[in-house]
Every structure is written in C-alpha cells, then in structure tokens.
Specification:
Helices cover about 20% and strands about 30% of the residues. It has about 290 residues and is α+β, with helices and mostly antiparallel strands. β5 and β6 form a beta hairpin. α3 packs antiparallel against α5. The chain is globular and about 55 Å long. The chain starts with 8 loop residues before the first strand and ends with a helix.
C-alpha cells in the first residue's frame, strides 16, 4: 500500500490525497495501490515526476512545480477512500460502455479548472489533451486494472504545466507546449488548482450517465471542422480526413477524401490545433448551470 507521505495526507470531499515532493509516476504508484485494494477516491499527487507517463507509451515531461496527480475510481463503489460524513460516492455506477467516457469527462474537468483559475482560453484536442493558444497545456491518461479480489478499477492521471521550467522546455516539447502561467505565482495557486480539479472531476463523472459533459466537450474541440491526419491502430498508412463531429460516446467521426464517414475510438490524430472561436468572445464555463451532480 501507499506509504504515508512527508508532504501530507489530506481527507477532502471523499478523496484521500497522498502528496509527495517527487515520485517516479503518480499513475504507477496508484495502479499498484489499486491492485492491492485502495479505495475509490484515493489520490496520489506530486510536485514533479521522474518517469511521467503519456498516452501511446510516450513519456510525459514533468518539470518541478507542475501539477501531477492520479485519481483512483471504482465505478459504483459505495464507500469513498475518505470517510467523511454525508459525502456521496466519488463516481456513480458506470456500464462498460460508459467507462469509455471517463477520459473525455475528465478532460472537461481539467479545462474547467484551468479556465476558471487562470482566465486562459482553453480547448480540447480529441481525446485527452488540453490546449491553450494552440499549444498543449495539460494531458490526461486513464489506465485500468484488476485488484486482488477481481474487481476492476480505473486510474486517471493528470499533468498540468503550471510554469515554464528553468531554462525552458526541451527542444522536442518547446514548439507545441505551453504553461498555465508565464511566471511563478504564489504557491497556494497550485493547491487551489489541484483542489479545483478534484472537485470538477467529481462533478463531471456524475454527468456521464446523462452525457451532459458532451456539450462542453464538443464546443471546446479544437479540431472539429479541420483536416486531421489519422494514424490507424493497426499500423496502416496515415490518411487525411475532416473531423466532422463527436458522437454520444465521445468518439470522433471523420470524413475521408473519398467521402466515407469513419468513427474513431482511440486512434491518434494530428493537427495544428487552434483555440475554439467561441473562446474569444464568450465565457465558456457556467459552473452553476452545467456542473451539477445527480
């Protein structure tokens, strides 16, 4: 099980948060804890990672003073990790089909937090990246496992680039990566951002049944209406297609040059993302209207 961290152990709204200065990977630590029976709402947070994980087996660059956290959920579990009175379960019961919506729902949660804490315009690149100003500011990685009792669980990893690293980003990241703030803020801002992300995750997970989050997920898309390069999972040659819509299961529907409609599940798409046009003239998030719990 997880060792008690020197940085603190916090009970908060059903979450039990283990905070560390530095870890190899918050996802790796929490996946192991999940296999050993850690409860829904267990969180591992760190100020930096030495072996952060990205999608498709890539590494996630994790300089100091960023926000790196992983959240364990067990859809339908009645008991949260933090036994606070009158706190509803972190995640409702989800069907197998609905579990595919965890990542896009959490993408909305992270976008909520970044926008409302910093005021920055944000967008979502299907399926799991948050963009601002045409560059990636945050990434999400969801993994699943089975514990010693045969129960499936999910670990949602979130990385947010809060400030430019000393000396700048490495060359391979500099062109397409940005940060929430351009200079260091009061350290309390990181705590506020982390707490906001967790609160937003709780709200957005409870929107999965009704697909309520899909309104924001679609509106914030930085690729709909643009051509994308699709990389098939079977290793076939990439092809160009227009991103047409996002369906009720958060799958991306594209139209090939031959006019054929194809539905993508987890293929990689590449594009030069740009901010959603509405970001420039409207307030994207109305927390009182759409961030509701069932």
């Amino acid at each position: 099980m997880l060792k008690r961290p020197k940085c603190g152990l916090i009970h908060q709204n059903g979450f039990l948060i283990y905070s560390y200065n530095e870890v190899t990977s918050t996802n790796d630590l929490l996946m192991q804890a999940g296999k050993e029976g850690a409860k829904s709402g267990t969180v591992v947070a760190a100020k930096s990672q030495t072996a952060g994980k990205g999608s498709k087996g890539r590494s996630f660059y994790s300089p100091p003073e960023g926000i790196y956290l992983s959240v364990l959920i067990r859809p339908g579990a009645r008991e949260n990790a933090s036994k606070l009175d009158e706190v509803p379960p972190i995640c409702p019961y989800l069907t197998v089909e609905e579990t595919q919506l965890i990542t896009p729902a959490v993408a909305c949660a992270v976008a909520d937090a970044i926008h409302d804490i910093s005021g920055r315009n944000v967008g979502i690149k299907w399926v799991n990246d948050i963009y601002s100003g045409g560059k990636k500011v945050s990434g999400i990685l969801t993994e699943s496992g089975v514990d010693v009792n045969g129960e499936r669980f999910y670990v949602i990893g979130i990385g947010v680039n809060m400030y430019p690293p000393e000396g700048g980003f490495p060359e391979e990241f500099a062109r397409n990566t940005t940060t929430v703030f351009q200079k260091k803020q009061d350290p309390v801002i990181n705590t506020i951002m982390k707490d906001y992300i967790l609160e937003s995750i709780n709200n957005r997970l409870n929107q999965i049944h009704g697909r309520d989050f899909l309104y924001d997920y679609t509106r914030l898309s930085v690729i709909l209406g643009y051509n994308v390069e699709v990389h098939p999972l079977n290793g076939d040659e990439p092809y160009l297609a227009e991103a047409v819509r996002i369906d009720r299961n958060a799958r991306l529907v594209v139209r090939t040059s031959a006019g054929e409609l194809r539905t993508l599940n987890s293929e990689e798409v590449k594009v030069s993302p740009r901010e959603h046009p509405e970001d420039k003239t409207t307030t994207v998030f109305d927390l009182t209207g759409r961030m509701k719990t069932d």
